[in-house]
């Protein structure tokens, strides 16, 4: 028994030494960051900015590879089977790493077994927008209107099961509202139909709705994050607007590595990303495109957050009867 324990201890120590050696030599060649959206998207723009900064700090090229498709899951599938050596990384969101796991019949990766989070660096909040003709100036007035309306208010989203749809359903359940969902095929159409009055409200991404809010074509009542967003400093959070201190319904961007990537490499990348995201230029860029930059929490805290997000959105998908619907 003692010999077995000694052998295991020696094996563990050897793996630590190997991992440390790999980290010291890392990187020795280019690193690829796989992005699940097309070039030119807000996510892509931000990734390219910090990829340049990683390249400067690590001394090796950092290449951004766009792999859109399969509801953001194509990129995750590709990185899940990549060598766990720190040279292939993934950026992903709540859709691919929390919601789709329950929404889709088949997901060709396991978010817990196949990935380790490297950096949780921005949240992607939504803005509760309404048609200006709707007689509500605040969230409490909207809640009152929704509860007293003879017919349910209707809201739009870019599709059943997407983050905007689930965020609105989360709001409905939280405040006991009866509203009808009108799904669209894309974000622009779902927002322009609020402007046109075909639907009355919805949760919208900041990048897609800010110009319409500033032109007075949409009225912004609240943001779904726990803090205000810099691009709309006068718009309150739900915590402020509706006395709901624990209300948060956001997507997020995280950098991942394959799960078996040596810990020293993951720790180094985490440290580099923490320094990069402290840069005022990075914070300003993220804010400009409607994202909420955050100080990256520790990897163990990020793992806990991911587990809570999977439970939060997975249980809502099941409650809505959408499990395996896609």
In short:
By secondary structure, this protein is an alpha/beta fold. It has helices at 2-25, 42-58, 73-80, 94-103, 111-114, 139-148, 163-175, 187-195, 206-214, 238-241, 263-277, 280-288, 299-319; strands at residues 31-35, 62-66, 88-92, 115-124, 126-130, 153-157, 179-183, 201-205, 219-223, 251-258, 292-293.
Share of helix, binned: 40-55%
The average pLDDT score comes to 92
Amount of beta strand = 15-25%
CATH architect. name of the largest domain:
3-Layer(aba) Sandwich
Distance between the termini: 51 Å
Oligomer kind: single chain
Task: Work out the helix count.
Answer: 13
Strand ordering within the main sheet: 2-1-3-10-4-11
Describe this entry's structure for a reader:
The protein is globular. It has helices at residues 2-25, 42-58, 73-80, 94-103, 111-114, 139-148, 163-175, 187-195, 206-214, 238-241, 263-277, 280-288, 299-319; strands spanning 31-35, 62-66, 88-92, 115-124, 126-130, 153-157, 179-183, 201-205, 219-223, 251-258, 292-293. The chain has 2 domains: 18-124 and 251-319, Bordetella uptake gene, domain 1 (D-Maltodextrin-Binding Protein, domain 2, 3-Layer(aba) Sandwich), CATH 3.40.190.150; 126-241, Periplasmic binding protein-like II (D-Maltodextrin-Binding Protein, domain 2, 3-Layer(aba) Sandwich). Helix 4 (94-103) packs parallel to helix 13 (299-319). The chain has 326 residues and is of the alpha/beta class. The chain has 13 helices and 11 strands. The protein has a 6-stranded mixed β-sheet, with helices on both faces. Strands 7-6-8-5-9 form a 5-stranded mixed β-sheet, sandwiched between helices.
């Amino acid at each position: 028994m003692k010999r077995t324990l000694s052998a295991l201890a020696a094996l563990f120590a050897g793996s630590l030494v190997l991992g440390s050696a790999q980290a010291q030599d890392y990187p020795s060649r280019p690193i690829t960051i796989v992005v699940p959206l097309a070039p030119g998207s807000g996510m892509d723009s931000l990734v390219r900015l910090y990829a340049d900064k990683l390249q400067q700090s690590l001394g090796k090229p950092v290449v951004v590879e766009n792999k859109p498709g399969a509801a953001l899951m194509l990129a995750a599938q590709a990185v899940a089977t990549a060598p766990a050596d720190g040279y292939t990384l993934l950026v992903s969101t709540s859709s691919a790493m929390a919601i789709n796991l329950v929404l889709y019949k088949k997901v060709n990766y396991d978010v817990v077994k196949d990935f380790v989070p490297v950096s949780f660096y921005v949240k992607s909040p939504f803005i509760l927008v309404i048609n200006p003709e709707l007689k509500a100036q605040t969230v409490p007035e909207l809640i009152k209107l929704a509860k007293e309306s003879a017919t349910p208010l209707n809201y739009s989203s870019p599709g059943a099961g997407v983050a905007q749809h689930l965020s609105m359903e989360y709001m409905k359940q939280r405040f006991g509202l009866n509203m009808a969902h009108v799904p669209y095929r894309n974000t622009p159409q779902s927002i322009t139909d609020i402007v046109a009055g075909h639907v009355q409200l919805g949760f919208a991404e900041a990048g897609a709705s800010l110009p319409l809010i500033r032109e007075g074509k949409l009225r912004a009542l609240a943001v779904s994050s726990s803090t205000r967003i810099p691009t709309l400093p006068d718009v309150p959070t739900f915590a402020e607007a509706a006395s709901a201190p624990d209300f948060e319904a956001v997507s997020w961007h995280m950098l991942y590595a394959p799960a078996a990537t040596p810990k020293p490499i993951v720790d180094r990348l985490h440290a580099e990303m923490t320094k990069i995201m402290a840069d005022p230029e990075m914070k300003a860029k993220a804010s400009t495109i409607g994202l909420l930059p955050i100080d990256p929490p520790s990897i163990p805290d990020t793992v806990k957050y991911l587990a809570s997000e999977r439970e939060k959105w997975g249980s809502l998908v099941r409650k809505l009867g959408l499990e395996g619907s896609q």
